[in-house]
Design a protein that fits this description.
Length: about 70
């Protein structure tokens, strides 16, 4: 069973990685195995990396993350 994730970021255009594998850039739609709690890494030049764990359960999930500018 798969779960559909819709991942967006502020600002958009962040690279999304799962376990070191590049999934694409935000806004991103991706299917992952249900029942997992994957750790996603969002990266964008000029911004701090953001690591987040998302719960993959129940159909379609939407996640929006804000990236902090590097100092």
């Amino acid at each position: 069973e798969k779960v559909h994730l819709h991942v967006t970021s502020t600002p958009p255009g962040a690279t999304v990685q799962l376990a070191g594998r590049r999934l694409g850039t935000t806004p991103l739609d991706v299917d992952i195995a249900a029942g997992e709690t994957p750790k996603l890494t969002l990266r964008r030049e000029g911004y701090e990396d953001k690591e987040v764990s998302v719960e993959a359960a129940g159909g379609k999930k939407t996640f929006t993350f804000s990236l902090k500018p590097k100092k």
